[in-house]
Write a structure and sequence with these properties.
Blueprint (H helix, E strand, L loop, with lengths): L1 H8 L7 E2 L2 H5 L16 E3 L4 H14 L3 E4 L16 E4 L6 E5 L4 E4 L5 H9 L3 E2 L12 H7 L6 H4 L6 E7 L5 E5 L11 H5 L8 E8 L1 E2 L5 E7 L2 H13 L6 E6 H11 L9 E7 L4 H14 L4 E4 L3 H12 L1 H6 L4 E4 L9 H15 L2 E7 L4 E8 L4 H20 L15 H23 L12
Parallel strand pairs: 2-4, 3-4
Antiparallel strand pairs: 1-2, 5-6, 6-10, 7-11, 8-9, 8-10, 12-14, 12-15, 13-14, 13-17, 16-18, 17-18
Helix pairs in contact: 8-10, 8-13, 13-14
Bound molecules: flavin-adenine dinucleotide.
Flavin-adenine dinucleotide binds next to β3, α5, β10 and α12.
Length: 455
Amino acid sequence: MDALLERLRAGLPAEALITDPDVTASYAHDMASFCDAGTPAVVVLPRSVEEVQHVMRTATALRVPVVPQGARTGLSGAANASDGCIVLSLVKMDRILEISPVDRIAVVEPGVVNATLSRAVGELGLYYPPDPSSWEMCTIGGNIGTASGGLCCVKYGVTAEYVLGLEVVLADGRLLNTGRRTAKGVAGYDLTRLFVGSEGSLGIVVKAVLALRPRPPQQLVLAAEFPSAAAACDAVCRIMERGHTPSLLELMDRTTVRAVNAMASMGLPESTEALLLCAFDTPDPAADLAAVGELCKASGATEVVPADDVAESELLLQARRSALPALEAVKSATMIDDVCVPRSRLGAMIEGTAAIAEKFGLTIGVCAHAGDGNTHPVVCFDHTDPDESRRARASFDEIMALGLELGGTITGEHGVGVLKKEWLARELGEVGLELQRGIKSAFDPLGLLNPGKLF
Ligand SMILES: Cc1cc2nc3c(=O)[nH]c(=O)nc-3n(C[C@H](O)[C@H](O)[C@H](O)COP(=O)(O)OP(=O)(O)OC[C@H]3O[C@@H](n4cnc5c(N)ncnc54)[C@H](O)[C@@H]3O)c2cc1C
């Protein structure tokens, strides 16, 4: 420990190091429940690429594991500390280095908060689409680490679609540049894409070149109430089948609606079994919403209410963004699934989840990026009750098994981390897993980067 601190101090200012155990303990885990976390030896908050290189050279020389962290809003334990590790928090590297309207790119450090970047590019008439519900807190580095999605992905895609190039500090301290800042480029293997979703296991992202789009018109939102989740899923299929391109298509089940009202007094309709939110940012959103409203009615919607204006639309989005925190308040603990299925199987996924909740006698609220087929079943339980905790874990696993059975994936956007480690092998298969392990050891032969995650 003394040798580690001495070497770190040689290349870092005093304020970049935290050693007080009470404070370092607060960096031990992200926002996922039930994921093991160790005790960090030290937390380092670098402000430059050179400082990150110094940390990685030190870690390699002394064989100390390193856990990169952004804002620790992750929901899979992917940013959890391991015993004796260096926590490398990138939040102080938070400069937007460049925004180019001509090249339609932004160049940023990893600690930039998603919403800060969105607002900065918005002022120039540009748009950075990936918008996790946690956008006011989470960082671009974390978004790249987990390949984040969000509410607008149904039209604009996920983080992977917007990362053009990266600067990465490798485990031994070397600096790697991947990708490009051009509109096109196919030179060599796509290492940029490899880093997106790698959960800090291949290198430390210290700079990112991100693609931007022209800012679309403000979106208008419609809320439709359904007598069952199956009817709402039927509407989702009709909307997509008819060729509509909503900028948002989200679902909240009855449990979620009630939880949001209880937490934030949003006045959402409590008698509904499922609430579908659909938005358009097209030149004539009202006309598109009217067409979608008819499709919702054809699927059995009992009420279809388009928002009057942008302010009312924003309130509905706020309600959706507060779904996870609201469900977290239902009982003392939650486990949040992230299963994504082909959207044609969304109804089967949600009905199957309800059957699992009944089988285990648990409350499982579902909110979903319905247009992506990405469900977030949130298992709510009392963590002081050992039997309920056991049933919660079993139901969480059955939900992932159901997702795989329906042709889906165990994680649409939150990542594998610690929480879904055992399930990754089932999804990838033996050959896939072996190759992925080979890639990991090519980048990190000593296994120092974020050990114990993914595999
Ligand atoms: C209320 C709430 C709502 C959410 N909604 C969504 C949502 O809609 N969509 C969604 O996808 N997620 C959502 N999330 C999950 C979470 O916000 C995202 O996974 C987010 O991308 C994590 O960013 P972070 O800065 O907090 O990263 P962290 O949690 O700190 O880290 C995430 C991963 O990235 C790695 N990492 C971080 N920085 C770097 C770096 N510079 N270099 C290399 N690796 C790095 C870490 O090691 C870790 O593996 C939500 C979370 C909460 C709490």
